[in-house]
Predict the structure of AraC family transcriptional regulator.
Amino acid sequence: MSQRLLPTPIALRREADLTTLVENRTVYSLNAFELNIFETHQQAARVPLSMGALVLTTMLRGKKVMHLPGREAFDYLPGESVIVGEQQTMVIDFPEADAENPTQCLAVAIPADTIRGTIDMLNERYPRVEAHTPWQLDDEAYAHLHNTPELTGTLERIIRVSQEDTAAKDVLAGFTLQELLVRLMQTQARKLIFDNYAQHLTAHRFAHVVQFIKRNLAEPLPVDKLSELACMSKATFFRLFKREFGLTPVEFIIQERLKEAKRLLRQPLSTVAEVCYRTGFNNPAYFQKLFRKHEGLTPGLYKKQQTALG
């Protein structure tokens, strides 16, 4: 798990300060939102939790098993987030929690009027590329998310502003919450198109672009060619792609090439040089630099670790 997908760790409460060993709650109340930090220090099952508002939860430590209405139970791990609707009750298992391995999760309770106001503003001023898919926050189909670096960075700012003691705290919190909502919707848009592009080829022009990129990672992928596929000028394509997904086309290409590089590096007979060229980097030094920046280790060390894991 790349550390870029995990907020900076929050210190655990001392045992003497815990009021309960199951979902001990620390609350930071602001005008814009309420930040809750939950810790569980012993195994437990079927623990219900309802926040009375739409909630973004993010796992920081340990493992939970989540039960949400109308869905099969799923493992909930660090680097992931779950959106829980205003009228939903979470039911949670803690199969591995103990004093040495507690779970820790943050939950941001977001007022409904803030959500509506932010969505209305985006749809009016910054509409999505396809008019039939307006901005919205999906708490069902795309509620379980793998964090993006951008979402993680905003969560870190949410934590930081909650713990500040400044006169401008609530003003900063309001701006940061709006950013969080935008990042959430962009993350859901990525999941919709990046992971399920084949289902949207007839309805979303960026689905064609994503398909072309994924099928041609070893080839040059100039933005001019991609903008033609989207039937846009280069400048419009670049601007709207970033607005829709929260990253540029070039950043997406790098992300996909590194993902494919990791897949190839896990193959026993592959070499780092071969993987570099098969994923379109064409410059081993640049490949090494990018891989280390995004994954925290060199391609060679990554391959050794994967080989050791079998």
Observations:
- Residues 200 and 231 are 16 Å apart (CA to CA).
